[in-house]
């Protein structure tokens, strides 16, 4: 529907050109009047037309792709916290923020930390997959952006990740996994921050956040060559 | 060497403030160079690119050091004549 609404002005300009000739360019009002005189969509004969007119203007794939990419949200790697400095944090005590030797046995809602469920978030450039696992590693639930209805490019966005987080949290609570959860994030991608936000918005009790991004400072097997765009 | 699960690179959430915890862990990971290293190792960086990058970083560090010294010097407060050359 929206496409037709966008195309209508183009049809007018086509008709305007055909009525006035290629060389002449009438003033705005005159052009509209001549257009209305001849146009089938808005002219005097439009009331007699029962069927809507469907016309398509030739569009190139490159144009469409450019439009789509321009309408997409900006690339977000989910690491906006990198450069901000929280002054309040400096004054707080760091005892409760980082885990220590007592944390695995510390109770959260009556469950020791080491036996809480784990929520693995894999945030890649093109998608975000969230899975809920047992403390032993047994898989309980799995949701991804594609399962939420987003397809292709839209999967690699923070909105999709947030929706996935909310969906998983709500389904987990509905299934009975109401216990506090520790989150483990992997990878840098748009959904890194939004997925966790979505989880907490959906009602999940997030107790800790771990980063398990696979990084090596040592020489590794040769990675694939750079993409040349 | 793998980091100990749920002890290293972990931040506990305080008062249900999940966003603050996420920002904190992102900040620490960024400051310690994990995220940059991840980005560098995604694709292979050819030796000439590595040399270029390292030389650029060295030059930038030298420039920043001297510039910071200059700024610190200019921002000194206990001067004999606060506005030298000003009539």
From TrEMBL, chain B:
One of its GO terms (biological process) is translation. Keywords: Ribonucleoprotein, Ribosomal protein. GO terms for molecular function: structural constituent of ribosome. Pfam families: Ribosomal_S21. It comes from the Eukaryota. One of its GO terms (cellular component) is ribosome. The keyword Membrane does not apply. The keyword tRNA processing does not apply. Belongs to the bacterial ribosomal protein bS21 family. NCBIfam families: S21p. This is 28S ribosomal protein S21, mitochondrial. It comes from Cloeon dipterum.
């Amino acid at each position: 529907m929206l496409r037709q609404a966008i195309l209508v002005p183009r049809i007018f300009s086509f008709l305007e050109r055909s009525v006035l000739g290629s060389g002449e360019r009438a003033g705005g009002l005159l052009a509209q009047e001549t257009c209305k005189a001849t146009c089938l969509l808005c002219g005097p004969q439009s009331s007699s037309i029962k069927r809507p007119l469907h016309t398509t203007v030739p569009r190139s794939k490159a144009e469409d792709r450019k439009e789509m990419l321009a309408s997409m949200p900006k690339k977000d790697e989910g690491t906006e916290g990198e450069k901000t400095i929280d002054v309040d944090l400096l004054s707080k005590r760091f005892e409760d923020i980082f885990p220590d030797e007592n944390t695995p046995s510390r109770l959260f809602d009556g469950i020791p930390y080491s036996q809480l469920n784990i929520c693995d978030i894999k945030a890649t450039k093109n998608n975000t997959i969230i899975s809920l696992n047992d403390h032993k590693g047994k898989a309980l639930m799995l949701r991804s952006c594609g399962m939420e209805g987003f397809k292709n490019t839209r999967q690699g966005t923070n909105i999709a990740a947030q929706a996935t987080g909310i969906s998983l949290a709500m389904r987990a609570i509905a299934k009975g996994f109401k216990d506090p959860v520790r989150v483990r994030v992997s990878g840098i991608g748009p959904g890194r921050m939004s997925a966790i936000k979505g989880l907490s918005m959906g009602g999940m009790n997030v107790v800790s956040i771990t980063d398990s991004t696979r990084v090596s400072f040592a020489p590794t097997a040769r990675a694939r060559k750079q993409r040349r765009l | 060497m793998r980091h100990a699960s749920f002890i290293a690179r972990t931040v506990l959430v305080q008062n249900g403030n999940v966003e603050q915890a996420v920002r904190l862990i992102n900040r620490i990971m960024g400051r310690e160079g994990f995220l940059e290293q991840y980005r560098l190792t995604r694709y292979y960086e050819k030796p000439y690119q590595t040399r270029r990058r390292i030389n650029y970083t060295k030059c930038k560090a030298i420039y920043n050091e001297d510039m910071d010294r200059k700024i610190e010097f200019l921002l000194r407060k206990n001067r004999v004549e606060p506005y030298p050359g000003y009539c």
